Amino acid sequence: MEALLYERVKDNVVQCGLCAHRCAIKDGKRGICSVRENRAGTLETLVYDKVIARNIDPIEKKPLYHFYPGSLSYSIGTVGCNFRCRFCQNADIAHMATDHSGRIMGHPFTPEQIVDEALKTGCKSISYTYTEPTVFFELALKTAQLAHEKGLKNVFVTNGYMTAAALDRVAPFLDAANVDLKAFTEIFYEEQCSAKLAPVLNTLRGMRRLGIFIEVTTLVIPGLNDSAGELGDLAGFIAESLGEHTPWHVSRFHPTYRLTDRPATGGAKLMEARQIGIDTGLKYVYTGNMPGLGTESTACPGCGSQVIARSGFMVLQNRVKDSRCPDCGEPIHGVGLQDA
Question: pTM higher than 0.85 for the full model?
Fold first, then answer.
C-alpha cells in the first residue's frame, strides 16, 4: 500500500515526512523504521495489514491512569520502530526487520476487523502500542477514523517522534497519548536511542495545543538519566509546558536487549524520582514496573484522600464524582474519570 506523507525528490529518491528523521530513501531501500520501502519512486508501507500483537488490556497498562480508568483497551501493534533504543523491552517485534535482514511478520487484520473486535469485546478504546504507532501510521489512521465513527476512543503509546504534519493528520481522531519522554538530554537520545530530544518536546507541546489528553512516562535508568538535576528539569518541563496536572509515570528499568550492564532500578530511586516530580509541582506522579511501592492509587491534590484505589493495573474503587473529589470538591484532572 502506498504510504502517506512523503514526496519524490529526484532520481527515484523519496523523502519521508512521517517522523522527525525525515529519511531520504533510495529506490529499493527502506527508512530507519525498516517498514517503509521505496519502490521505483513510490513509498510503500509494508505493515498496513500485518498486525504482530493484539490484546485486550486494562487502560492502566498503557499506562493511562486518568483516561477512563478501569476500562479496557483493544491494543494492537505491528513490526517496526523509528528509534534504536538499546534498552527496548519489545525488541523482538520492534526491531525484527532491522535485526533479521528485513523480516516482517504479522497476521492480516484490517481496520474494520480491529474496530469490530474492539466493540465485541467491550473495549472503550483502541490503543496503538507495543511498537511505535507512527511507523504503522496508515493502519492507525484508518482504524482511528473508523473507531471514532463507532464511538470508540483512540490512544497512542508513542515515543513522540512524529512530524507536525503527521500529528495534525491524526489529531482529529486521537483522544489520548502516553508519550515516552525518555530523558532530558540530547546526549541520551543520541547515544541510547539514535534520535534527538527536541522533536519529542515539540510533539508534546503540539499535543497539548491540539487538546489531546497526555500522560508522560520516563524509564529511570541507573547512571544514564536518573540524576536529581535531570529528573527535576524533566519534571519542570512537564509542569511548565504541559501543565502541573499532567500525570507522570516513573518506571523501573530492567536490563534487556543491548543494555545489560546496568542494574535494575531500585525502589528508593523510583520513590526519589516521584518526590522530585511532586516537589516540582506535579499533582499526579506514579511509579511503574515495581509493585509494592503503594503509589499506583490516585490521591486528591487538594485534601490528599484516595479517590481511585488501584492494585497494579486493577481499579479497586473509584470515588470520583463529576470529576471532583467527593470529600473536598477539588477537581481531579482527567477524561472520563467518573465513567469507570
Answer: yes
User: Among 114, 76, 82, which residue's Cα sits nearest to residue 97?
Assistant: 82
Q: What is the pLDDT of residues 171-198, one digit of tens each?
A: 999 999 999 999 999 999 999 999 999 9
Question: Which residues of the chain carry a pLDDT beneath 50?
Answer: 340
Q: Which cell numbers hold the place of 242?
A: 504541559
**53/285 Cα distance (integer angstroms):** 29
CA 134 to CA 87: how far, in whole Å?
19
CATH dotted code for 50-295? 3.20.20.70
Place of cell 483522544: 175
Q: Where in the chain is the domain with CATH 3.20.20.70?
A: 50-295
Are the C-beta atoms of residues 143 and 184 closer than 8 Å to each other?
no
Interacting residues of 196 by C-beta distance below 8 A, sequence separation 6+ = 20, 186, 189, 190
Phi, psi of 233 (to 5 degrees): -65, -40
| Residues recorded for the chain | 340
Opening angle at CA 188, ends 182 and 194, nearest 5: 90
